[in-house]
Automatic annotation (TrEMBL):
This is Exostosin glycosyltransferase 1. Residues 474-679 form the Glycosyl transferase domain. Belongs to the glycosyltransferase 47 family. Its main location: endoplasmic reticulum. It comes from Hucho hucho.
């Protein structure tokens, strides 16, 4: 009897399972491999909100939500099928789809395909190509290249856009170096079109890497693709404005707690979140404004709220809101990325991200939890209470980090492009890659070059963080350009005075004179080693070469006719020890904008301010020799060598561009003497690049 009962129970259970599977009541779990195959930097958009101990569950992608109009065009299953077939190289990683051997011979060089006649190219993409061609990575020889970039415009792959390039599939396949996309990088800002906005570029990218805006975590291939920000065609090509945070207010609260002003999509992809913002808007410190007034047929589709929303929208000035709010909402639009992201960063308005499934820009290197609040579209109503719960100390830290990230990686197209290339270079040259600290702290990865050293303690920017101090000695480098004919020449007196300094480790005389080197007995006897080096090509830039004989952190740069006492040398060095990342010295100069001649001027007149300290008597970290030689564009160094002048101006602007700080002038007992004191005032032409690091 018992056996019969067990048999009936088993039979009933089996029948129930069959019915459940038949009617779709049970679904097998999807593979979780992709969601765990991520970078370990903690930069995913599905991170926990601040002060929440438990992480949020995996965000639902758009293809898993229910929108009536969207489902008319394409079902969730069809959308997933599209995503999985967008790239045949979906499983590509650096070790499987990248040829490292091409990079070992010639380091990291980038080749740009020659532009083809008759091919249209947008201004934005032309800017990208010009930036690559002007970088230190560029090569005109494809045989030396580690990375290849197409001259075919791939930025806008929306087929309805006037910038859309037709027949790209055939054009790409006909490139003789294409090699199924291996070692190629493709830049893209827009993909897909109305109504689905898929991430298909309209051609098979093969094994090429993507530098793509609005890329989803589902499509993104970790440590292979690079997520870049969406930027407008008006975004500055180089330089770019600094962040708007001029001073830190304590407490760090502004007029508004949370703001947003933008389009509202009545139907279709991206409409759900923006359509619900009015639930959170309180007209006081949470001001979330949307308008239906966009597109040709907006009146045909307007709903009951449109008129009220439009009227409210017109009452507020967007810039005023942006600059006077603590947090800025960054909801998704038709695509995952939004222009609001960069606007919020620049304005020091902490971004509150509402774009489920968006791989945030440069997520491989940037820890976005230190500069943004990563939200969930499903928890929209919790946003006000969440941002209000963030402590003011945390708000101040978030705001300061927005300014650092904006100026380090996002303020210009040049920085976006170079950051992309530097990320890929770090992958290729793994033994010389930057640490997380280098990328996420001042001065940033673009200025902290791992080719100089793999040890953080060798850079002047990290002494305070590491709790260390620079080496307590300096190397003096005296630039000699006139022959040694008398024992009473200033260079010999200078050499003796410097050698008596308690902080002097050695003296290097850089002989840039056309006459032969003086005999050894012509130099005075000193208590420290004196090394005489023949200048390379006898050019001005040779005084800033990273000589291996410089073993100290500090370099005391001197002109041969400088007059300084031992006490003055000691004083300057002790000041520098407190500011090792800055340029510290005696002779000061100022640059100014001459509105009459519409160019920059340069003066040595004594005023109440200054912007430069000449390297004829200045102390700085030896790392700046490495940057001067390996980071600055060759055209700028060439200009200095051609003029045989202005090398001190170029060094000043280099240091200020890195530190975002002015030099430090120290005073001396005697008036500083120099050969060209008669040239009190002169006009100079300073390239725009130099002025972007204005040390004023």
């Amino acid at each position: 009897m018992q056996a019969k009962k067990r048999y009936l129970i088993l039979l009933s259970a089996g029948a129930c399972l069959v019915l459940l599977f038949y009617f779709g009541g049970v679904q097998l779990p999807a593979s979780d491999r992709n969601r765990h195959d991520r970078s370990h930097n903690g930069n995913r958009p599905d991170q926990p909100w601040p002060h929440f101990s438990d992480p949020l569950q995996q965000f639902l992608l758009w293809d898993q939500t229910d929108t009536e109009e969207y489902n008319i065009h394409i079902s969730p299953r069809q959308k997933r099928d599209v995503n999985t077939s967008v790239y045949k190289g979906k499983r590509c990683r650096m070790d499987s789809c990248f040829d490292f051997s091409a990079c070992k011979k010639n380091a990291f060089k980038v080749y740009v395909y020659p532009q083809q006649k008759g091919e249209k190219i947008s201004e934005s993409y032309q800017n990208i190509l010009s930036i690559v061609e002007g970088s230190r990575f560029y090569t005109t020889d494809p045989g030396q290249a580690c990375l290849f970039i197409l001259s075919l415009d791939t930025l806008d792959r929306d087929s309805l856009s006037p910038q859309y390039v037709h027949n790209l599939k055939t054009k790409v396949q006909n490139l003789h170096l294409w090699n199924n996309g291996r070692n190629h990088l493709i830049f893209n800002l827009y993909s897909g079109t109305w109504p689905d906005y898929t991430e298909d570029l309209g051609f098979d990218i093969g094994q090429a890497m993507l530098a793509k805006a609005s890329i989803s975590t589902e499509i993104f291939r970790p440590n292979f693709d690079v997520s870049i920000p969406l930027f407008s065609k008006e975004h500055p090509r180089t330089g770019g404005d600094r962040g708007y945070l001029k001073y830190n207010s304590i407490p760090p609260f502004r007029k508004y707690m949370l703001v947003f002003k933008g389009k509202r999509y009545l139907t279709g992809i991206g409409s759900d979140t923006r359509n619900a913002l009015y639930h959170v808007h309180n007209q006081e410190d949470v001001v979330l404004l949307t308008t239906c007034k966009h597109g040709k047929d907006w009146q045909k589709h307007k709903d009951a709220r449109c008129e009220k929303d439009n009227a409210e929208y017109d009452k507020y000035d967007y810039r005023e809101m942006l600059h006077n709010s603590t947090f800025c909402l960054v909801p998704r639009g038709r695509r995952l990325g939004s222009f609001r992201f960069l606007e919020a960063l620049q304005a020091a308005c902490v971004p509150v991200m509402l774009s489920n499934g968006w791989e945030l820009p440069f997520s491989e290197i940037i820890n976005w939890n230190t500069a943004a609040v990563i939200g969930d579209e499903r928890l929209l109503l919790q946003i006000p209470s969440t941002v209000r719960s963030i402590h003011q100390d945390k708000i101040l830290a978030l705001r300061q980090q927005t300014q650092f990230l904006w100026e380090a990686y996002f303020s210009s197209v040049e920085k976006i492009v170079l950051t992309t290339l530097e990320i890929i270079q770090d992958r290729v040259l793994q033994q010389e890659s930057r640490s997380t600290l280098m990328w996420n702290s001042h001065p940033g990865g673009l200025f902290a070059l791992p080719q100089y050293s793999a040890h953080l303690g060798d850079f002047p920017f990290y002494y305070a963080t590491l709790g260390i101090k620079p080496y307590p000695k300096f190397t003096a480098v005296i630039h000699a350009v006139t022959p040694l004919v008398s024992q009473s020449q200033p260079i010999l007196k200078l050499l003796v005075a410097v050698a008596k300094s308690q902080y002097c480790a050695q003296i290097i005389v850089l002989w840039n004179c056309d006459k032969p080197l003086p005999a050894k007995h012509r130099w005075p006897a000193t208590s420290v080693p004196v090394i005489v080096i023949e200048g390379e090509n006898k050019v001005m830039s040779s005084r800033f070469l990273p000589y291996e004989t410089i073993v100290t952190d500090a370099v005391l740069s001197l002109d041969e006719d400088t007059v300084l006492s031992t006490t003055e040398v000691d004083f300057a060095f002790t000041v520098w020890q407190s500011f090792p990342e800055r340029l510290v010295g005696y002779p000061a100069r100022s640059h100014f904008w001459d509105s009459n001649k519409e160019r920059w001027g340069y003066t040595s007149k004594w005023t109440n301010d200054y912007s430069m300290v000449l390297t004829g008597a200045a102390i700085y970290h030896r790392y700046y020799h490495f940057l001067y030689t390996n980071f600055l564009p060759a055209s700028l160094r060439g200009m200095v060598d051609q003029l045989a002048n202005c090398e001190d101006i170029l060094m000043n602007f280099l240091v200020s561009a890195v530190t975002k700080l002015p030099p430090i002038k120290v005073t001396q007992k005697k008036q500083y003497k120099e050969t060209m004191m008669g040239q009190v005032d002169q006009k100079i032409h300073v390239p725009d690049w130099q002025m972007s690091g204005n040390p004023d």
